[in-house]
Structure formats: structure tokens, C-alpha cells
Amino acid sequence: MADSSKPPTKGARTRATILRHAAESFRRDGYDDTTVASIAQKIGISEGTVFQHFGSKSGLLGAVMDEFYAELHATALDIAGSPGDAEQRFRNLIDAWALRAERDWDLIRVFTQRARYGTDPELDARWKEHNRRYTRLHFDLIEQLQAQGVLKDQVPPALIRDIVFGAIEHIALGQDLSPHMEIREKANQVVDVLVAHHAGQPPIDGRLERIERKLDAALGRGDGSVKVMPEGRTGDGSAAERA
Amino acid sequence: MADSSKPPTKGARTRATILRHAAESFRRDGYDDTTVASIAQKIGISEGTVFQHFGSKSGLLGAVMDEFYAELHATALDIAGSPGDAEQRFRNLIDAWALRAERDWDLIRVFTQRARYGTDPELDARWKEHNRRYTRLHFDLIEQLQAQGVLKDQVPPALIRDIVFGAIEHIALGQDLSPHMEIREKANQVVDVLVAHHAGQPPIDGRLERIERKLDAALGRGDGSVKVMPEGRTGDGSAAERA
Amino acid sequence: MADSSKPPTKGARTRATILRHAAESFRRDGYDDTTVASIAQKIGISEGTVFQHFGSKSGLLGAVMDEFYAELHATALDIAGSPGDAEQRFRNLIDAWALRAERDWDLIRVFTQRARYGTDPELDARWKEHNRRYTRLHFDLIEQLQAQGVLKDQVPPALIRDIVFGAIEHIALGQDLSPHMEIREKANQVVDVLVAHHAGQPPIDGRLERIERKLDAALGRGDGSVKVMPEGRTGDGSAAERA
Amino acid sequence: MADSSKPPTKGARTRATILRHAAESFRRDGYDDTTVASIAQKIGISEGTVFQHFGSKSGLLGAVMDEFYAELHATALDIAGSPGDAEQRFRNLIDAWALRAERDWDLIRVFTQRARYGTDPELDARWKEHNRRYTRLHFDLIEQLQAQGVLKDQVPPALIRDIVFGAIEHIALGQDLSPHMEIREKANQVVDVLVAHHAGQPPIDGRLERIERKLDAALGRGDGSVKVMPEGRTGDGSAAERA
DNA sequence: CATGAATGAGAATTCATTCAT
DNA sequence: GATGAATGAATTCTCATTCAT
After folding, report:
1. How far apart are CA C42 and CA D198, in angstroms?
2. pLDDT tens across B199-211, in order?
3. What digits encode the pLDDT tens for the residues A187-203?
4. What domains lie within chain D, and their CATH numbers?
5. Spatial distance between the Cα atoms of C171 and C180, rounded to a whole number of angstroms
6. Contacts of B153 in chain A (CB under 8 A)
């Protein structure tokens, strides 16, 4: 998608300029209240030029979408390919999306309205394609995490994806227009809910601590054995029982 | 919600007819591709009449929305007020919504596109109001369930709501146009994910209680720390044990 | 087509006004150089009103065409139904068309260009229907005349129609823009060509008569051989004569 | 007409290619629905190139027309210059045109619509010039045939031309889109109608013969003054009679 | 010769909406 | 309550055409 050759044709530069201004306008005014004329005028080119490059207004939105997802996907690829903890990479992936939603929700909102909730099949198909590619990265990680027991493995990966993305969207939508959205934070919480060892354990943890303290008190001991549940639904406790 | 007066004025009947056809048209063609003229024509009335009754096209959509939510809320009220298990009532509530989504997604889609993703503040406000009223029922139950330990209580109720509804929407959107949508089934799975005793804890809980009781007994104490999960299907095992 | 009820609705009056001005504009500027805007403006109505009444620009042309043919057909019906000589009625019919072509060729030219030579199937169908109805009158007379021997009966009626109308069109086209077109005269000649006893004979006939009379006088004879060709191919008599 | 120089310049080849595709497109889609862009694209050249060669879209149509008439005229010249019967040559000429109409009516239709019924004076002038040159051949033959008595000589040659071509056009137009058009056959019938000895003259002939016989008898002579219609299938009888 | 980019001037529509009757 | 007529503003999109390179 990025042309690595140095000299951008005049056409390519025009194209990029249009794209930039179009995105801005869609963000600010929404799709319906953006007119091709206004974009062209602001750039100082002819209206026809826009149509020559993008064919139609919705084609223009499509191109803006392409660019958005190209960038998003590149970032996501970096994260997914980074070394280290699968869970962390998954969290980073989600966080990257949440960050994006925080920063550019107005644009995402337009994509969503026109492509997914709209009636333009072409645009919808285009969005779906982007999404498939993008979500595949998550999918892979989800499966890995399920294998590791970090994510519950009886939940279909697609459902986990729906929960994460659906919830984030709902959250973003709820905070409509607020300047300081806390989407990232909430997105993180959503992941917490799904990650097994976080999944409501705190209370258990609390109780475990209490119990441990009682035990310690009763037995006169005091070590750090409480970080039980390293992987999730561990039969571990049974070991204690057995004892 | 239901007009208890018996003789529906001629005007009222016209109004109802318009509403019915408008809903149908919105469902089938979406908002933009529905014209007031086409609705009027199909009914055989004048375009002006529609405006007489609803003021504007978006007012008409608003009215369709009102009707939809009136019915939805009535159903929800019934469920919420039904006797029995809070969890079951919660599940029924969610299921009712999922059922609705399965049956009438095309209409919900229009509401969402125009009210939530759209730029009409009035319509959005109207939707928000309906949603608030509707979601309150869930909210209450969520809080109850958290108190009962069925739902993790460290997760803010609003987040749980966002997860449930967001996920369902995502699912519905994904199954676009498919005749046999499995929204209900998936919605149920979403709830499962959120309900604590499915989250891997049950075994732990049972053990914890046992352990704590034993300890208390051993230590000669008897506080109420165990009142956790009064409804949870977990206490059971312990009861058997106690016996 | 003509509404016999007296009070023309306001709508009907508007419609008629549009029609009148549209015809004028099509005549003067042709189809392409006529804009709906200019028509509306000249009348002092909104552009939208024109579209409300006629749906589209080509629908407007269609309506103009309808009116043209309605009038034409009415006239033709009168002529066809008038008492007297079939040949005369046929000639009058053709003459009426030629007169029309002389007076309103600019409009007919537009019909022809758009409906018959154009690419709008709807318009073409509309024209064809009018033409069918109109030409049927000629057809009937042609058949009658063939039965009477006035028109050669070995020529298919449709061909006679094609010759007459085709030739007139060709003539009209050739005299393009000339103010004093002699279409009627030429149309008459075309019919002469087709009518057997006129088929070029008149001048010859005159001479022949003269010659024959002189000869008879010179030879001292005096039979009735001059009533030649009262109906058509009368040469027969000569056989009798010979005898 | 044909470029006798052997090595066609690259430019010339491009020109020819454009011409060929343009003709094809005009035929298939008509003038309005043909875009210069589509032609260029199909050939794989730039839009500008087309304008380089033909100056304008209507210039392109003009060039296509030139080519068409060049070929047509060449054929016609051959026929007109062929040895033998004038009537036969006339018939062949008409037949060649009818054949052309059968084969390439879609293109002729475009010429007619744009040049003769259209509003482009330049194109019309161009067409008229071609037509003049082409029709002159017919004209000459018509006059010859009239002198020979094959065609009625009191009918102006121009009218005969209008009848023939007008009728053929009408016929072609009527058979719209039909795959097996019988234009040639009908065109032949049209000529039959015009050729004297078919046109009801036999009776006149009969009388002329009679008269001549009377004269001969009266004057005691017996020359070949009957040389009228040397080609006509009629003179014969008289010869036989004379014998 | 050829090109690719830019243009620009419409022009036809569409439709929600108003209002007198 | 209902209607029919009129509105009118706003917008997308089309394409032949030009021109610098």
C-alpha cells in the first residue's frame, strides 16, 4: 500500500492531499454533511479531480478507509510480531485498537455507519475484507492464549473477538463526544474479564489471603505461597485437599 | 403503551397504518432508501398526511422506534418482574433481546445507524432515553447478581452491559443477511462467560468454603465471610459434604 | 386524452403550461439544448414542479409527443371518417401529415431523433404505439384503394406506407430550415406516383387524348376510348377496341 | 481513399485502430453512450491521443463517417461503371445500399441521428457532401432511365431518390433489431414500384401501340419510333406485333 | 506522437417539507 | 384530518476537452 519509490507522481500527491482532507472532513462533519465540493474547494482543485481519482463519494470514503486500515494493520502486525508474552501482545493489540478508537472515533464512526450499518454493499465488502485481515491477528493470538489457558478455551475465539470489539464499540459510542474518553482503560477491563486468572479472582484472592493469614496465624507461618492459580482453572487446590 | 380507549379515532388508525408501513419500509430498504412518498403511496394516502402525523421523516422513524421500544420494554418488564431466580431472569432478559435481534435486526440496524451513529441529536436523545429505561432493568439485575456473586462484582455493571449488548450487536452484524441467525445461542454464551461459576471458579469456591469452614471450626471462629454466592450453584456440594 | 370536464385543476393548468413551453423549447433549441431549468424559469415555476408532473426530461418529451399525436390523430380520424371518395380521403390524410410536417417539422424532428433514432427504449415504444394507431387509418384506406384498383394491389400496404412516410421525411429533411417548404406539393407527387391512373400519365394522357382525337378525326372515327383509366388498369378496353 | 504508401506510420496505425473501435462502439452503444474514454481504454491508449487525431468526439464520428462513405462510394462507383443495362446498374446500386443498411444499420442510424437529425452543422455538412457525391451516381442513372422510359419521366429525379432512400430508411427503422432484416427484398420492391413497366404503364403502352398502329396504318409507314423502353420487358411485344 | 492529469460547467434529479383549501 | 400541488435547495456525477511534459 505504501509506495516505496521516492518520486511521488503529481497525481499521487494530489490523491494523497484529497485523502487527507477528506478524512478530516468526514471526521468533523460526518459523511452526509461532507460535500465533495467543499473538499475540492478547500484544497483548491476541481471537483472533477476528486471524482477522477476516486470515482464517487463513497469511493472516496472507501479510500480513506483503506488508508486507515493499512496503517492500523501495520501497527497491529508490529505488535503481533513483537517478542514476548502472548498475553501481553494480545493486550497490546487490543490496546492499540482502543487507543485508535479514543483518538479517531469520529472517523471510525463514519466507517461503521456507512459500511456496516449502511446500505452500500461495496463499501461493506471492503470493510469486511479489511476487518478479516485485521482480526486474523487477534484470532491467532486468542487461540494461542486458549491453548495456554490464559483465555477460557471453551469459548469460541470468534465470540471472544465479538465480545472485545463489540464492547469497545459500545463503550466508545456511550462516551460520545466526550473529549477525554477512557476507552483504553475500559478495554483493558474487558480483557481482564476474559483472561482467566483475572476473571473475578480478586475476591477469591482476598479470601485466599484471609484464609492464608488465618492459617498462618494458626500455624505460626508466613510465606508467599498465595500466588496460586498461575494458569487458570487449576486443579491445584485439590492437591491441598489431598494433603 | 397500549391505548386502552376502545374506539380508535380515524386519525389514530391512519397513524397506526403509517407506522406499520413505515417500519416495514425502513426494515426492507433502510432509512435513506425509504421515501415518505413511497410509504404514503403504498397506503394510498397523501404525503402531507404523514407529515401531519409525524412532523418529519425522522420524526416518523422516532415514532417507529417508540413503538418498538414500548413493546420491548413491556416484555422486559414482564421478565424482570417474573418470580424466581435473578440469574434466570437476567438470562431471560438477554435472551429476549437476542430473540428480538434475530427477528428484527433490520429494524434495529436502522435505529442504530440513524440514532446512534447518525448525526441527528434529537433522534439520538430519543434512543438514549429508551435505552436508559430499558437497560435499567438489566442494571438492577446485574447489581443483584454481583451481590450474589453470580456476576463478578469487581466489574462495573455498565461494563457488563456494554459487553453483553456490544457483543450481541457485533454478532448480529456479522451474520448479516443470514436467514438462520444464531444470535440467541451466542448471546447465551456471552452471558456464560460473565457468570462467575462458569468462569472456572466453582471448584475453587467449593473448596474455599470447605477450607474456611474447617479452619473456623478449628480456630473456633464463625463470621459471615462465607455468605458469598448465596444463589450460586456451588454451595451445594458443600452442603452435601456437611451432611 | 382531452378532459371534457370544465374546471381544469390548478395542477392540470400547470401541466398544460409546461407542455406548451416545453414544445416550444424543443422546437426551437432541440432536445439537448433544452434544459428543464430554462423551461421552468420561463414559466416562473420551480424546476421540481416539472419533474413532479413528468418524472423526467424524456418523460416531458414523451408528454409533448402524446399531445402532438393526440391532436394529429383526431384530425386524421375526422378525415378518414369524412364522406366521399376513398382516394380523396387518402390524399387528404397524407396532405394533413405533410402540412403538419411543413408547419412543425422542428418538433417532429426532435421526436424522430430521440424516439426512433435515439436509444431510449421507453420513448421509442411510446412513439411506436402512437404511430401504429395513426398509421392504421392509412392502412385501412390503402387496402380499400387497392381493392378499387386505385393503388397497385401487388404492393404490400406496409410498403406503400413506408414509401409515403419515408419519402416525406426525406423531403422534409432535405429542405432543412428553409422557411417555405414545399412538402405538401411533393407529398402529393409521391401519392401520384403510387396512384395508378396518375402514375405519370396526366401529361401524357393529355397528349395522348389530343393525338388520338386528331387521329380519329383525321381517320374519320370516333369511339369512346378516351375515357381511359377511370379506375386503373383500363388498357383492357383496347382489346375490345381491337376486336 | 486507400493509402497507397506501404509502410503505415505508427500514427496512421493508431488512427486506424481508433477508427475501428470507435465505429464498433458507436454501433453498439450509440453516440451518446459512447465515451471517448471508453474507446481509449479499450485500445489501451490515452484519451488525449484520440483528440490528437480527431480533434473532437464529433470529429471522430465524422472520420468514421468518412471511412464508411469512402467504402460505400467505391462500391457504388464500381457498380455504376459496370457495363450493361442501366436499369440493372440502378437496381444494383440500390441493392448495394440496402445490403449495407441490412449489415450496418446501427452505424447508419448513428450518422443519421447525429448528422441529419442532430444539431451539429459541421457534421451535417459533412454528411451532405458525402451524400451528394454518392447520390449523384443515382441521379445520373435515374435521368438515363427516365430518358429510356424505364422510370417515369414526369417525376423529378430528386423525388425518385427521396422515395427510394426514404422508403428504405423507413423500412430499416421499422425492423429494429430484427436479426434477419429483409431490407434488400423490400428495397427491390420499391424500385419495382417506380419502374415504369411495372407501374401500370402497360395500359399506356398498349395505347401507344394502338396509336402507333393507327398512325402507321394511316400513314402507311413502319419505322422504329417505338424504341421507347429499349430495355423494358415491354418493347418486345410490339416488336412481335410488328412482325 | 503520446500521455496523464486536471478541469469545469453543467444538468438532471431527488425529496423532505410547506401550505392553502 | 386530509390532500394535492408546489417547492427549491443542494449534490453527485459525467465527460469532452486542454495542456504541459
Report:
1. 56
2. 444 445 555 666 6
3. 999 999 888 654 444 44
4. 9-55 (1.10.10.60), 56-197 (1.10.357.10), 200-242 (no CATH)
5. 13
6. 200, 203
